[in-house]
Amino acid sequence: LIESVQADLEQGMSLHDALARYPETFSSMHLEIIRAGETTGNLAVILGELNAHTEAMKRIRSRIIEAVAYPAVIAAVIFVVVEGALIFILIKYRQSNSKGDPKQLHGHTRLELLWTAIPAVILTGIAFMTVPVIFQQAQEAEGALQVEIVGSQWWWAVNYDNGVVAANELHIPVDRPVFLSLKSEDVIHSFWVPKLAGKTDVVPGRVNTMTVEASEPGEYMGQCAEYCGLSHANMRFTVVAYEQDDYEQWVSDQQKPAEEDPAVAEGRELFHTEEFAGGQMCASCHAIEGTDAAGVVGPNLTHLASRDRFAGSMFELNEENLRAWLEDPPAQKPGSQMPDLELTDDQISALVEYLLSLN
């Protein structure tokens, strides 16, 4: 590998392009760091930092392997000893000519202390190996992306430290740890992305944390894993992982105000000012950046049309599903906090056009 890269460099190829030929060895994050070093002229410094990062990741992986491997070996030894003794006793004493009950050991203090102390010592030893790793993994990784996740019945608010606000979709770059601060507005939920991390409870009045990291671009489905009411099964979300350049473009797009399309003026007027027969104005519960709509009860809709799904990731975002939703939200999602606003067909059409323009 080194000889091949050296040959490419001698032919005038940049280090980034030379290493990019070996994606199985160098991740996209490594390549982006090297590209930054070449562009700024700080390649030597960048490579030193990259090496330090790689070594740190190796140490983390090593700690995890040790935490899992040693208890596994201990468990295997115990299994062999216990099952071996059981098989030996079953065979050796499978038949007896003695009469009456065997000798009883109840009240044998020394024996009872022994079989209590041995498991206690084993579990204490395992705890010394595993508990420190659990706390280490709960710590925030250096350079991690900061995201706040807020669970509500039955959807997820996603708030980035750069000001971007989303709902039911967590967008992240690949090969970069994402440190999540998990909060709840109402009851206990549980944040779970099976392909990226384990489950972490989301508890009212408490901030729990976890770290997720995607190694490949793509979509990863998530689900609330703690029963939280009538539509618990419908409280889903999606993690979307991008290459670094694509992620930065997504952030840039999300930081822009919602587009103002004159063709949807009627729907915009209905959303922001109309109080419908079945309840309050849309803007009372939803926010759209750059407008007077600043509600916090429901999802932020600033760039709704850029999302793939809505209503807790239940439905694909399209005109048909939006119409069905606005006609009667509780009929589409049992227990929905959004009531039936008793909208007319014309009002629904105008609102759907406006919502689909929010890109």
Shape: flat
Share of residues in strands: 15-25%
Helical residue percent band: 40-55%
Tally of alpha and pi helices? 10
The span between the termini is: 45 Å
Radius of gyration, in angstroms, nearest whole number: 29 Å
Give unreliable regions as ranges. Answer: none
SSE series:
HHHHHEEEEEEEEEEHHEEHHH
Strand order of the largest sheet: 3-2-1-5-8
Largest sheet, strands/sense/barrel: 5 strands, mixed
- What number is the mean pLDDT? 82
Structural class estimated from helices and strands: alpha+beta
Overview of the molecule:
By secondary structure, the chain is α+β, with helices and mostly antiparallel strands. 42% of the residues lie in helices and 17% in strands. It has helices at 2-10, 15-20, 28-40, 43-92, 109-138, 244-254, 265-273, 319-327, 329-332, 345-355; strands at residues 145-152, 155-160, 165-167, 169-173, 178-184, 189-192, 199-202, 208-212, 218-224, 236-242, 309-310, 315-316. α3 (28-40) packs antiparallel against α4, α4 (43-92) runs antiparallel to α5 (109-138) and α8 crosses α10. The longest helix is centred in the first third of the chain and has 50 residues, at 43-92. The model has no long low-confidence stretch (mean pLDDT 82).
Short structural description:
The protein is of the alpha+beta class. The chain has helices at residues 2-10, 15-20, 28-40, 43-92, 109-138, 244-254, 265-273, 319-327, 329-332, 345-355, and strands spanning 145-152, 155-160, 165-167, 169-173, 178-184, 189-192, 199-202, 208-212, 218-224, 236-242, 309-310, 315-316.
